[in-house]
Amino acid sequence: MAMIQRPKGTADMLPAQAYKWHTVEKLAAETAEQYGFKEIRVPTFEDTGLFVRSVGETTDVVQKEMFTVSATGDDTFTLRPEGTAGVMRAVVENGLLNEAFPQKLYYITSCFRHENVQKGRLREFHQFGCEMVGSADAKADADVISMAKSLMDRLGLENIKLNINSIGCPKCRADYQKALREYFAPHRETLCDTCKERLEKNPMRLLDCKSPICQGIAKDAPLIVDYLCEDCDAHFKKLQKYLSLMGIEFDINPKIVRGLDYYTRTVFEFIAEGIGAQSTVCGGGRYDGLLEELSGKQVPALGFGMGLERLIMTMEQQDREFIEAKTCDLYIASMGDDAADKAMAMTMELRDEGFFVEYDLMGRGIKPQMKYANKIGAKFVLVIGSGELETGTAMLKNMASGEQTEIKLDSSFVDSFSNALMAEMFKDIDGEVEALLGKE
To answer: pLDDT band for position 436 (50/70/90)?
Structure first.
């Protein structure tokens, strides 16, 4: 029988890799909460119309990449291709627009796009995202960008460049789109079929086309920064001022338009140098018209999405440190049924006190148990047999140093083991301090 394999464009996270994900997820949540963001969770799938209205009918996401299914009756649902639309739908539906502004929300979630699979680009991928609702001030833009940078700094990432741009508002964008149509019109027959359609509906999407031919034509296209209205230009200049005040370096990249239609004014990307074609580790911006599209209320908002797979890939390539995977504090090996019962009872008592303890579940002999304890990286091993049960004492072995200490198997055992574990931890800390002093 042929083995069923995982779908193309998906990946398994195995226990041996979990600590890397835990590192990114833990620091992402801590950073978000430090900036006042609260976690939100929304459904994995939404009404298809939500993404058509918010992401944009002419985007690659809607035209080519959505996973859409039919439910009973005529309803269609789509697995979320990005996080913002579902969160904004939840904000509207649950009355958060009536709460105090700004509303600050973050999420760590999976997204789904039917894309060409390559390194750093999967069909199921994971994002850390944040959304801020209610502020139109450029300070909010700078604050959100600062949070993204703060996380990447905490992850230890280097050679990360911030690119910013403004794509204006509907008022000034109308003039820009007119200029784009005039520029691309002579090249119409050379454009890909998708861009021929976009030329009339949304010519800015031509700047985001992946076709080498369309990219070549777009190289000398007009720049949006030359068409900004007075308000959008002032907003963009204030953003630059605030980023400078925060000590955040940036480059203005007039080619950034982002791939989703809901963006207005500020757009930005953090680019990791040296990780290949898929080098954008974070992208976001302002979408002041999205909530009006969903609720009829004019409420400004902004945010970003950060790909966890790309963050981890960048950390690996830059040899950054991850939070160490938790290892077993104590393995209790036993010989005989009575000793096995005692090992089980002691294990449960120690676990109740918060220790990571294992005991034999396979009916192994003492040598295989010791091999297993070594394989799982147990810090200490305690061997219990009939002799130990008679004397009420056993030898606690430090697996790193080989030192053995006699301890009692009575009610004082928990305290005795805790002291031994703490002594080993302080020894490791003292060693690290001595090494640092030696370097100095």
So the answer is: very low
